């Protein structure tokens, strides 16, 4: 093989028209300026640190006393290397502050995002906090937006968006939690939604790597992969666990199957035993359908276990109704599923 | 917007298509290629005076791109993410040219990052041994040995593919 042949082979690999570029020159420019500002801030900070360290060392003998040191809360950090996609069996997102009145939380770990929804009395959603993998989503530009606070105190404003005609008690805050990686806080109902969104955004931490545990175990579906895992735990032992499987374990763009268990009857709807805060069965943007004979629920004394195949119009469900029925009978709830300490891992297989 | 910013945006428009293809050859994934290009172009802006004065502006950006790629390999970023653009498994045999492409792509992906970078710079970008060595911060001897090893592996993969095709027919 000579040089010419190697060159020809390499050229054939990129001979086809490439997919549309996700590189937006304006965003590159903005990112570069942000990077330059951070670099300057780092240099200044390092200089200030050296000066401060010298001052502290000089004063140390006079500062020594027996008072306990207050616990410092680390500021939120711009993540320099956010993930492109996440492992749905692990949870990266955490909050180091929550508003009063939160009685329950939903945690959702998907391939493309990680999400916490804070619920108030009656399991009403108050706020949904999400971090997305790099290059996954962009804010909807049809909505009017205004600049809000700088989340990382680096001078870059976040964006507050309100759908047309929406209540002034709701809206979404968007900001970059890392290069090309968006985070959002959606406020469902608050008297001061912008302030609450900014406080929650500043409380976001992304360095956790907690294993996801579920209140049930389920045998693996042949040929299907886990795309999302979600849990809810609330007062008085209320709980829910939801798993979503599809053929490639990535986005839920096609048909999928939901396996769930809950004892929160108020949250149970006709076709889906437990639906997270949003209209989740429709979140791929397509009008998906639940086959009438395949919305299978297995009520126990206090719990409802469900296996629901959801099909994209024009294509069949990823498992047949009979298989869904068999799967529903094999979902195994843990003892006392209302106590998250009893939840299990691994939960598939 | 400053004159520098305008010149930079013009520069980005000019070099973007070429950089994306080089990035794709380095990582075999268009999503990651775009991330690499974005990271490289941001770094170019930080040293815009040097980039603007370079005799070959595309060469400057390409050098930055390759170093960003190798830097990410070192920090194990590539091991933590899941690539999304793998070709689907096909039940039927692919046409010969497509099969050859897949073989080359797989063989390229299996090479160590530095060897892959040497092949892309030498044989796709048509750089000389000396220019490749300068881009990669290594000696011409290293470029020659890495290129020889990479070529041997590509050759081996293509020979195996030819043998399999002959057996099928």
Could you give the topology of this structure?
The complex is a heterodimer of chains A (349) and B (169).
Chain A: H1 3-13, H2 25-63, E1 90-91, E2 94-95, E3 104-110, E4 113-120, E5 124-132, E6 145-150, E7 157-161, E8 171-178, E9 181-187, H3 193-202, E10 204-205, E11 210-211, E12 216-217, E13 225-233, E14 239-246, E15 256-262, E16 296-299, E17 304-310, H4 321-330, E18 332-333
Antiparallel strand pairs in A: 1-11, 2-10, 3-4, 3-13, 4-5, 5-9, 6-7, 7-8, 8-9, 12-18, 13-14, 14-15, 15-17, 16-17
Chain B: H1 3-27, H2 30-46, H3 48-53, H4 57-74, H5 77-80, H6 96-110, H7 113-124, H8 129-136, H9 140-168
What does this 3D model show about the protein?
- The complex is a heterodimer of chains A (349) and B (169).
- Chain A has helices spanning 3-13, 25-63, 193-202, 321-330, and strands at 90-91, 94-95, 104-110, 113-120, 124-132, 145-150, 157-161, 171-178, 181-187, 204-205, 210-211, 216-217, 225-233, 239-246, 256-262, 296-299, 304-310, 332-333.
- Residues 59-73 and 268-287 of chain A have low confidence and may be disordered.
- Chain A is built from 4 helices and 18 strands.
- The longest helix of chain A has 39 residues, at 25-63.
- Chain B is mostly helical and 169 residues long.
- Chain B has 2 domains: 1-87; 89-169, Winged helix-like DNA-binding domain superfamily/Winged helix DNA-binding domain (Arc Repressor Mutant, subunit A), CATH 1.10.10.
- The chains are: A alpha+beta (349), B mainly alpha (169).
- The A-B interface holds A 1, 3, 6-7, 9-14, 18-19, 21-23, 25-29, 31-33, 35-36, 39, 81, 83-85, 111, 134-135, 179-180, 250 and B 5, 8-9, 12-13, 16-17, 20-21, 24-25, 30-32, 34-35, 37-39, 41-46, 75, 77, 80-82, 84, 97, 100-101, 104-105, 108, 119-120, 122-124, 126, 151, 154-155, 158.
